[in-house]
Structure formats: C-alpha cells, structure tokens
Amino acid sequence: MPEYKIKINDRTYDVNVGRILDDSVEVTLDGKTYHVEVEAPMRKVSKTPVIKRNHQVINAAEVPDRTSPPSVSTGSGQIIAPLPGLILKILVKKGDKVNEGQPVAIMEAMKMENEIESLASGTVTEILVSEGETILENAVIMKVGG
Questions:
Q1: Could you read off the pLDDT of 103-133 as tens digits, one per residue?
Q2: In 3D, which of 79, 113, 97 has the Cα closest to residue 146?
Q3: Engineered SS bond to 73: which of 12, 33, 91, 119, CB 3.0-4.6 Å?
Q4: Domain segments of the chain: what residues?
Q5: How far is CA 58 from its chain centroid?
Q6: Torsion angle, alpha carbons of 131, 138, 76, 71, to 10
Q7: C-alpha separations of 60 from 55, 67, 82 in Å
C-alpha cells in the first residue's frame, strides 16, 4: 500500500491507500482501516489502440489448399492481377478455351511465382499483357468470354 502524509487543519496524518477495486478502496488512517467507496475512480487510459473487428470464423476443412493468391474477377470475364509483379509466362493464346481454375499466366510477385487462374470457363477474347511486362495490382491481364 502506498503511504502518504496528509495535513488537514494543521494536523498531520499517516495514510495508507490500497488498490482501487471496482468502486471501493481500503484506506488506513493513523492505524485505523476504513472501507471507502470511490465515486469516480481515476483509471489510466491505455495508449495502446484497441482494434475491434467482426471476423468470420472459417472452417479449415472448407478452405482449398493454395500456394498462390487467386486471380481476381470483376464478374465481367476480366482476369485481374492480385498483386503487382512481373508477368513471367502467358500460358494461353487468344481464342483458346479455358476452364474455371485453369492456370492462364504465371507472374512473379514478392519474389514468388504465382499461377493466375481463370475464374470462369470460356474463350480467351483478349490478352492485355505480355511476357516480361511489369504490371500493377488490379491490372487486367486478359478477358475471357462465354
């Protein structure tokens, strides 16, 4: 318990103050202990920010095994780069038929080779990048039509 000397009306008292628990604290004044209720306890404000997120718990059995990030689809048949990187190889040509999940390009991003997969089945209608080209995240790599 921290010990204090306090002065009230020119008289000095020895006071021990316990830990504030909820809204009460034990105070010893000149050897006599009192149970004191605290109306508005002073609480330390944490300087560490607290981030509260509503997160979804995913069943691990339902998550597919994947060693590379998936390509992103805008729903319009566009295959979008998931990360900025270098196009190492285009695996299909204009007019080729592709299936959903089929690798269509390989790109190097963050010093790793990533397979870019088609998110829809159809025919490659346009290839907008070339091998050796550096592209940004969300760049359209190619278009697949129905």
A1: 999 999 888 899 999 988 999 999 999 999 9
A2: 97
A3: 119
A4: 3-37, 69-145
A5: 15
A6: 70
A7: 15, 15, 22
Closest CA to 97 of 144, 51, 46: 144
Contacts of 76 (CB under 8 A, 6+ apart): 143
Please write the tens of the pLDDT for every residue from 12-31: 888 888 887 777 888 888 78
Question: Mean pLDDT across the stretch 134-145?
Answer: 91
Instruction: Specify the CATH architecture of the domain 69-145.
Output: Beta Barrel (2.40)
State how beta strands 85-90 and 97-98 pair.
Answer: unpaired
Question: What SS3 state is found at 33?
Answer: strand
Burial of 20 (C-beta count, 10 Å sphere; 0-12/13-18/19+): middle
pTM (2 d.p.): 0.49
CB atoms within 10 A of CB 24: 13
Cβ neighbour number for residue 72 with a 10 Å cutoff: 17
Cα–Cα nearest to 121, from 99, 137, 104: 99
